[in-house]
UniProtKB/TrEMBL annotation:
Keywords: Kinase, Serine/threonine-protein kinase, Transferase. This is Serine/threonine protein kinase. The keyword Nucleus does not apply. It comes from the Bacteria. It comes from Candidatus Beckwithbacteria bacterium GW2011_GWB1_47_15. The lineage of its organism: Bacteria, Candidatus Beckwithiibacteriota.
Length: 423
C-alpha cells in the first residue's frame, strides 16, 4: 500500500508533465511566447521573411533585424518591412501581423542596373508572341543574303552554360508574302502560324506554317477558303478553356468577367484575373469565406470604367493597376483575327501584362518598363532607356525580360531583340 503511493504519484506527475509540456509545445509552435508583463504566454504573429535572391537584409520599422530566409515571432500589429540587397531595387511593404497567423513577404528583388544581351543581329520586325508564352515569331528583311530573310521563331528556353537560344527560320522569303507587314496569328496550341496578306482585298491570301520545321511555301495550299472554319475552331477551343476557368470564380465575378469587363486575362497559375472594367459597379464584400492571413493591402472594390484591375480569387481581393488605353476598332473582316490575337495576349493593345510568377505584372509606361506586384505595391522600374514599339515580354521562367530596341545610334538598321537579366 505504502509502496504503491509513490509510484502512483510519479505516474501522475509524469502524465501532468507530459500534458503540460505538450500544451506549451503546441502554443509555442503557434507563435505564443512568454510575457514578463503578463506572466503568461502571449500570442505573437509570425513573419516569414523570404526573398529571391536569398540572404537579403530585413528591416522592420527602419531597423535591421535579420536576413532572409528567416521566420520571426513578433507582437501583433503593423510593421513597415523593407528587404534590401546591394545591386537590387529594395522591396517595401506595410504588413499587419495577427496572433497565431503567418505573414509572408515573398519578396522578388530586381536588379537595379540593367544587363542587356542581344538575341538577334539582323533585325526583328512584326513580333508576335505565342499563346503558350514559349516562343516569339518575327520577320527578318535586312539580312546579308536574301535566303536569310523570312520568318523566324525564337524559342524562349535557357541553354546550358548561359548560351542564348538561336532563332529558327521557318520560312524563306516568298514574292507573295511580305512577312514584315503580314498579319501573323498563332494557333491556340502554338504549333502553327497563320500568315495573312492583303486582308479584305480580292487578292487576299492565307497560309498555315508549322513552327517546328522549315516550310516551303510553294508546296502549301492556300488556306483562305477554309479560313472561317479554322478561326471558328480556334475560338471554340478558347471558349471551352475560358468556361472551365470561369466556373472557379464566385458567381458575381463570373458576371463581371463576362458582362462588365473586357481584356480578361488569367494569371499563369489561374488564381488571379486581370480585367478592364467597362462600367462602374461595386464588388460586394465576402464573396467567399475569409482566408486567414490574407493580404492587408488596400484594395478597390468600387470599379471605374476603363480601369485595369486584378482580382485574387483565393483571397477575394480586388486591386487597381492602371487606366486602360482607348480601345481599337478592327475592320469587319479582320475582326476575328484581331480578336483572336487579343485573347492570347494584351501586349499589342494595352500596357499591362502578366509576369510568369503570377504575383507580378509588367507595365510599359512613358518610355520605361515597370514590374509591380499584383496588389499594386512595389512598382519597380527595371528599364528606362530606348526601346521600340513598346515591346516588352517576359522569359517564361521570369529570369529575363525581352525588349525590342535600336541601340546603334542613328543607324538605319532595324531594331533587334535584347534580353534584360532579372536575376
Amino acid at each position: 500500500m505504502f509502496q504503491r503511493t509513490p509510484r502512483l504519484l510519479i505516474v501522475i506527475v509524469a502524465v501532468l508533465f507530459f500534458v503540460t509540456g505538450t500544451y506549451f509545445a503546441i502554443r509555442l509552435a503557434r507563435g505564443y511566447r512568454p510575457s514578463l508583463a503578463s506572466r503568461a504566454l502571449q500570442g505573437t504573429g509570425l513573419l516569414a521573411a523570404n526573398s529571391v535572391p536569398r540572404g537579403a537584409s530585413v528591416f522592420l520599422n527602419d531597423k535591421l533585424t535579420t536576413a532572409t530566409d528567416d521566420t520571426l515571432n513578433l507582437p501583433p500589429g503593423q510593421y513597415r518591412v523593407k528587404i534590401a540587397q546591394d545591386g537590387y531595387i529594395p522591396w517595401e511593404k506595410t504588413l499587419v501581423l495577427e496572433a497565431e497567423l503567418v505573414a509572408q513577404t515573398n519578396a522578388r528583388l530586381f536588379p537595379s542596373v540593367p544587363d542587356l544581351k542581344p538575341l538577334t543581329f539582323s533585325g526583328a520586325l512584326n513580333l508576335t508572341p505565342s499563346p503558350d508564352g514559349q516562343k516569339i515569331a518575327f520577320a527578318v528583311g535586312n539580312a546579308t543574303t536574301n535566303d536569310k530573310n523570312g520568318l523566324y521563331v525564337l524559342d524562349l528556353f535557357d541553354r546550358p552554360f548561359g548560351f542564348n537560344s538561336e532563332p529558327r527560320q521557318i520560312s524563306r522569303p516568298h514574292p507573295d508574302f511580305d512577312f514584315t507587314v503580314a498579319r501573323l496569328t498563332w494557333s491556340p496550341d502554338s504549333s502553327q502560324i497563320l500568315v495573312s496578306v492583303n486582308l479584305n482585298q480580292p487578292d487576299e491570301r492565307n497560309i498555315l506554317l508549322s513552327v517546328s520545321s522549315l516550310n516551303d511555301i510553294a508546296t502549301l495550299k492556300d488556306a483562305t477558303a477554309r479560313l472561317p472554319v479554322t478561326l471558328s475552331e480556334w475560338h471554340e477551343l478558347l471558349d471551352k478553356k475560358d468556361h472551365e476557368r470561369l466556373v472557379l470564380l464566385p458567381e458575381f465575378m463570373q458576371k463581371v468577367a463576362t458582362e462588365s469587363a473586357r481584356a480578361v486575362y488569367w494569371s499563369p497559375d489561374e488564381d488571379k484575373l486581370m480585367y478592364t472594367a467597362v462600367e462602374t459597379l461595386t464588388i460586394p464584400e465576402n464573396l467567399i469565406p475569409p482566408v486567414p492571413a490574407s493580404s492587408t493591402q488596400v484594395q478597390r472594390r468600387n470599379l471605374e470604367k476603363d480601369n485595369i484591375y486584378i482580382y485574387d480569387l483565393e483571397e477575394d481581393k480586388n486591386f487597381w493597376l492602371a487606366a486602360a488605353p482607348a480601345t481599337d476598332t478592327p475592320g469587319v473582316k479582320d475582326s476575328s483575327l484581331e480578336t483572336l490575337s487579343h485573347r492570347y495576349s494584351p501586349i499589342h493593345f494595352q500596357p499591362v501584362q502578366w509576369f510568369p510568377d503570377s504575383r507580378h505584372y509588367i507595365l510599359v509606361q512613358e518610355g520605361k518598363i515597370v514590374i509591380g506586384e499584383y496588389d499594386g505595391t512595389n512598382q519597380d522600374t527595371v528599364y528606362a532607356g530606348p526601346f521600340s514599339d513598346d515591346f516588352a515580354y517576359p522569359w517564361p521562367n521570369g529570369s529575363r525580360l525581352i525588349i525590342l530596341a535600336s541601340l546603334n545610334g542613328g543607324s538605319n538598321q532595324p531594331p533587334n531583340l535584347y534580353s534584360i537579366n532579372l536575376k
